[in-house]
Amino acid sequence: MAKNDLVLENVTKKFGGLTAVDRLDMEVCQGQIYGLIGPNGAGKTTIFNCITGIHPCEEGRILWKGDDITKLPPHRIAAKGILRTFQTIRLFPQMSVAENIMSGRHVKSSQGWWHGIMHTPKSRRDERENWLKVEEQLEFFQLHEFTVQPVQSLPYGLQRRVEIARAMAAEPSLLILDEPAAGLNDKETMGLLKLVFRIREMGVTILLIEHDMDLVMQLTEKLTVINFGKKIAEGTPAQIQQNKDVIEAYLGSDDDD
Ligand SMILES: Nc1ncnc2c1ncn2[C@@H]1O[C@H](COP(=O)(O)OP(=O)(O)O)[C@@H](O)[C@H]1O
Ligand SMILES: [Mg+2]
Fold this sequence. Notes:
InterPro entries: AAA+_ATPase, ABC_AA/LPS_Transport, ABC_transporter-like_ATP-bd, BCA_ABC_TP_C, P-loop_NTPase. One of its GO terms (cellular component) is plasma membrane. It comes from Desulfobacter hydrogenophilus. Helix content is 38%, strand content 24%. Helix 5 (121-140) packs antiparallel against helix 6 (156-169). It is an alpha/beta fold. The structure holds adenosine-5'-diphosphate and magnesium ion. Adenosine-5'-diphosphate binds next to strand 2 and helix 1.
């Protein structure tokens, strides 16, 4: 069995009186495509925010390749190779596709500010390397023809691709996608499916939240289902489809996705 990359132990996150994530245990193995599903408001995005340090959890531990990352700030977690996209796209709308992707290189930059100002050999080397990585993403995500276009002028499907490209520019080991197919049409969703498989072939572990059940069933190897912040089931897509609690949670909710 593959090694565990990401381990959540007893993770709990409260907002005032509301327990958004309740004693959650979860293990994602290296190279897996792992799905996190559940009705709206179940706590899925909050779990991603805990993992990426945006809303650190009060209780429990999060381990990454054996290191405790529970209390680390977001930039330190990103520097460890955990990168994400957001449920609502967060790009720089007026900046070009290339500039947005370049912004993903930020977490790789270890040099002091003076290198840039002084145009040291290191800063020139880094800049070359950064543009090379941006080029790679433009190619991989088939965004070349839009290189200089401001992202706000692009359709939603392409903006989603730019956001994943930006995360990939940082050379992640774990890519976390929060509802990557939201707002996409069927053709764009199929394109996304192929992209995610190709990203995994590159050795990247993928953790995703997705409402599109067809996509989840085709894409993921293992799933955790949560409802009201608690894990109600865990298993392969086939096991989850048969699970009574899961069927009840979905049919019993107002979620019409
Ligand atoms: N920053 C926040 N402040 C207060 N409550 C929040 C915050 N983020 C999420 N919540 C609440 O936590 C619960 C889980 O939300 P969320 O994780 O966004 O659910 P999901 O992604 O599964 O739809 C919801 O009741 C939501 O209102
Ligand atoms: Mg959410």
